[in-house]
Fold:
Amino acid sequence: MTSRFEWATMDSVDPRRLADFWCGVLGYVVYEDKNGAVVEIGPDPESPDEQRLAALRGGPAVPNMVFVRVPETKTVAKNRVHFEICPIDCDQQTELERLLALGASKTDVGQGDGRSWVVLADPEGNEFCLTRSLAPGEFAL
Structure:
């Protein structure tokens, strides 16, 4: 028996703003918005629920994200869990420029110089990494 990673939940001062940011980053859409208090996003649904459930049961799946309103801002210096994202249709520098335009910011968590990845923060300060590109011609097996 195994389980599947279905969604990640993040505390947020402004769930809709953070959901909109991550929709822009990942190409997701808003599935549900409970008056801005809870917002769920995920891949644009192209198949009926039973097909999506079968795919989820069949193997690793792309998780949804849920943003839940909390009264406090982020208080720790570095996340214990963060996302690693890879561009799929452009090089890393082009994707970095796009993410910065969406509202990401570069941040330092002690990673040092000369890394192949870039540490960024979303609009509420949650760190994530922009790693190598998976675009054709950029990534070789």
